[in-house]
Structures are given as structure tokens and as C-alpha cells.
């Protein structure tokens, strides 16, 4: 029996004030390529291309607040990336334009903000 997801691709779309700039950040962070760019939209995908991230122009964009604050824009989703060396990965992400969140709730995770203010996590590979 053939899987109904066989041969499918999937992805997510993220709003940003400058989709091209945010696509360039994630392309560099993940060592992926920008596979499509036009005014208001940019798409990043890995070499095998079965997954993608679309960055879309958002008029009136407000970055989410993390940790959550009553009455403020909440984080709707975030990325987790597994890394071998947590401090090195965080330092590299900051050099690419990320910023370290002031609250760090776990020893084996670093919470950062991408250039548009979306939180993402670097998670140490303890396996």
C-alpha cells in the first residue's frame, strides 16, 4: 500500500516585515538556498527540497513577545534546531543577526530571536 504522503512536500509560511532579509538569515543559518524570491515573498529550502519555509510580507507586522505577556502578540509557533555545540551555535546565530533572549529557561536550550523578532530555539544534542 502506498503512503498517502509519499512524494509530498510540506512547509510553513512566516510573516515578516522584510521577507527577503529574513529568508537570507534562515538560508545562512540552515545552509539552505533561497529557491524563489519576488516582491513580498521569499522561499528557502534544503538541497533535497521536500520541505520549505515561505516568508511573506506582513503590513503592520508586530513581533511576538517571549516569554508571553498578557495583551501582547503571542508566539504562534517557533523553530527548534538541534545542534552539537550550543554555545558555538548561539554565537554563530548572533553573528548572523539573531539576538539572545533575556530569559533562558533550560540549560540545554538557547532561545534566540531572528531579525524579525520571531523566537527560535537551539537545542543541544545530548544523544
Give a short summary of the structure:
This protein has 127 residues and is α/β, with parallel strands linked by helices. Helices cover 18% and strands 34% of the residues.
Explain how this protein is built.
- With 127 residues, the protein is an alpha/beta fold.
- It folds into two domains: 1-61, 2-Layer Sandwich (Signal recognition particle alu RNA binding heterodimer, srp9/1), CATH 3.30.720.120; 62-127, 2,3-Dihydroxybiphenyl 1,2-Dioxygenase, domain 1, CATH 3.10.180.
- Helix content is 18%, strand content 34%.
- The chain is built from two helices and eight strands.
- A hairpin with a 5-residue loop joins strand 7 (109-113) and strand 8 (119-124).
- The longest helix is centred in the first third of the chain and has 12 residues, at 19-30.
Q: Helix segment count?
A: 2
Number of discrete domains? 2
Biggest sheet features? 4 strands, mixed
Strand order of the largest sheet: 1-4-3-2
- How much beta, percentage-wise? 25-35%
Which structural class do the helices and strands define? Answer: alpha/beta
Number of E-state strands? 8
Outline: globular
CATH superfamily of the largest domain: 2,3-Dihydroxybiphenyl 1,2-Dioxygenase, domain 1
Named at the architecture level, the CATH assignment of the largest domain is: Roll
Helix content: 10-25%
Distance between the termini: 34 Å
Low-pLDDT ranges = none
Backbone CA Rg: 16 Å
The overall average pLDDT, rounded, is: 91
Amino acid at each position: 500500500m502506498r503512503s498517502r504522503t509519499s512524494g509530498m512536500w510540506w512547509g510553513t509560511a512566516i510573516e515578516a516585515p522584510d521577507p527577503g532579509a529574513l529568508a537570507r538569515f534562515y538560508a545562512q543559518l540552515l545552509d539552505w538556498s533561497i529557491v524563489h524570491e519576488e516582491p513580498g515573498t521569499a522561499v528557502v529550502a534544503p538541497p533535497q527540497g521536500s520541505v520549505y519555509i515561505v516568508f511573506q510580507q506582513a503590513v503592520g507586522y508586530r513581533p511576538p513577545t517571549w516569554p508571553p505577556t498578557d495583551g501582547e502578540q503571542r508566539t504562534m509557533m517557533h523553530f527548534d534546531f538541534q545542534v552539537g555545540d550550543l554555545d558555538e551555535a548561539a554565537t554563530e546565530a548572533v553573528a548572523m543577526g539573531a539576538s539572545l533572549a533575556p530569559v533562558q529557561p533550560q540549560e540545554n536550550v538557547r532561545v534566540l530571536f531572528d531579525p524579525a523578532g520571531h523566537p527560535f530555539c537551539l537545542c543541544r544534542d545530548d544523544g
